[in-house]
Amino acid sequence: MTDITGRKGPGGAADAVSDAATDAMLDDIFQTARADSAGAEPAPGLMTRILADAASESAARAGQLNPQAAPRAPQATAGLGWRHRLAELASAFGGWPAATGLAAATVAGLWLGISQPQLMNEMTARYGVADALDATLGTTLAENGVFDETTGASTDTDIGANTGAEIGAVPNLFDDQSLSGFEALLMES
Amino acid sequence: MAFDALDQIPDEDLLARYGTGDQSAAAELARRLTPRVLRLAARILGDPAEAEDVAQEALMRLWRIAPDWRRGEAQVSTWLYRVTLNLCTDRLRRRRTVPLEAAGDPVSDQPSAESGLLDAARLRALDLALAELPERQRQAVVLRHVEGLANPEIAQIMQIGVEAVESLTARGKRALGAALGGRKRELGYDDD
Predict the structure, then answer these.
(1) Would you call B184 and A25 a contact, using CB atoms and an 8 Å cutoff?
(2) Mean pLDDT for chain B?
(3) Do A36 and B123 lie within an 8 Å CB cutoff?
(4) CA distance linking residue B98 with residue B85, whole number of Å
(5) A85-99, pLDDT tens digit by residue?
């Protein structure tokens, strides 16, 4: 017998015929197997799963290569946005120093409005809002520069402080006294 | 690039394109390679359902290696055949104690409409005889005589020498002849 390696087996002529027939049979069965396999298309479900694997693998790889493409955690986004918006607000008012002064003025105004409402009413009625604030807060607002920016008054803190002291002290006394003095002179005349 | 031009692109180039996210390249690779992987796994395992699982896993490994693929080191199909054989080996080892009859329907037990009953009987006989071969002989015989690959490529797939391939296929074919030789008449062949 002769196998595919060309080696001779121990059998005689009958074996050789039989082996050749067996080889032919095997070759025919192999041919049938090839034809059977070639005609068998993969099931649509299998192809769908394979292509889905390909797509998910691409997506996973894209996520690893470009982490910024992945959505941020909601909390981190919210925190960053709050700080960012606050910084923008401070910048709009001239930076953090000005914003600090504005905050101090706001607190002081609130305190005055609550603790001495009558005083504020009288002063605003006589001198207007800007002068009343200047007189009441004195150097606090002027030193922070906020008062000057919001009213257009002099930026000289000494003047502001002085003006406040003068306005706050003089008019109530002087005006009342002067009026009383004129009235006395008229009466006497 | 138009879809009809994809079939002109070598496997390796398609794999590189898929590595950059081109899903049409993946579809073309799957169209080319899945049938080959599937029928190899089916012949080795003798179980169509299990062969589908192996084919899907083998292609998954191809998708994963795409960005790291080294051009020129191996053909994509050769690499994929090797992965498929390794996956089959793993499954065969896991079911080593399971009788063949319980491993699932043989591949040739579900003939297509065109296959005659005689062909179905022949293919079933082949599958049963292949299942009795030692694993490496079975792999070599299927790659050589069913897949029709040349011995040098089989040597690359199985990571052995060409002479070892020749030895495995020769011994495997002799064993098949011994198993099926006595059934010539039953399978529709002359007995001499």
Answers:
(1) yes
(2) 87
(3) yes
(4) 19
(5) 555 555 555 555 555
CA B22 to CA B6: how far, in whole Å? 12
CB B176 within 8 A of CB A33: no
- CA angle at residue B18 from B17 to B21, to 5 degrees? 100
Closest by CA position to B79, among listed B159, B190, B185: B159
Determine whether B73 is exposed, middle or buried from the number of CB atoms within 10 Å of its CB (0-12, 13-18, 19+): exposed
Identity of the residue numbered B52: E
- Read off the tokens for A43: 């099931």
Alpha helices in chain A (DSSP H): 13-39, 44-65, 74-92, 96-115, 117-137, 139-144, 146-151, 157-188
The verdict on A57 touching B (C-beta cutoff 8 Å) is yes
Complex-level ipTM: 0.83
Tokens 């398609």 locate to B14
Q: What is the largest CA-CA distance in chain A?
A: 169
Whether the CB of A40 is below 8 Å from some CB of chain B: the reply is: yes
Chosen from A36, A46, A47 to mutate, greatest number of chain B CBs within 10 A: A36
- What span, in angstroms and rounded, lies between the C-alpha atoms of B186 and B192? 13
Angle among Cα A121, A126, A131 to the nearest 5 degrees reads: 90
The pLDDT, as a whole number, for residue B34 is 96
Residues of chain B by 3-state class (helix, strand, coil), percent to 5: 75, 0, 25
Q: Which residues pair with A8 in a beta bridge?
A: A2
Nearest to B146 among A30, A41, A62 (CB): A30
* Residue that the structure tokens 């009413």 belong to: A121
How sure is the predictor about B46, in pLDDT bands with cuts at 50, 70 and 90?
confident
Quick: pLDDT tens for B167-189.
999 999 999 999 998 888 888 88
In chain A, which residues have their Cβ closer than 8 Å to the Cβ of B169?
4
Using CA coordinates, name the residue in chain B closest to A55.
Answer: B23
For B169, residues 6+ apart whose C-beta sits below 8 A from its C-beta are A4, B137, B140, B141, B144, B145, B151, B154
| Distance (Å, whole) CA A43 – CA B35 | 10
Using the beta-carbon criterion (under 8 Å), do A29 and B187 form an inter-chain contact? yes
Contact A47 B125 (CB under 8 A): no
Tell me, what DSSP letter sits at residue B114? T
Shortest alpha-carbon distance between residue A20 and chain B (Å): 9
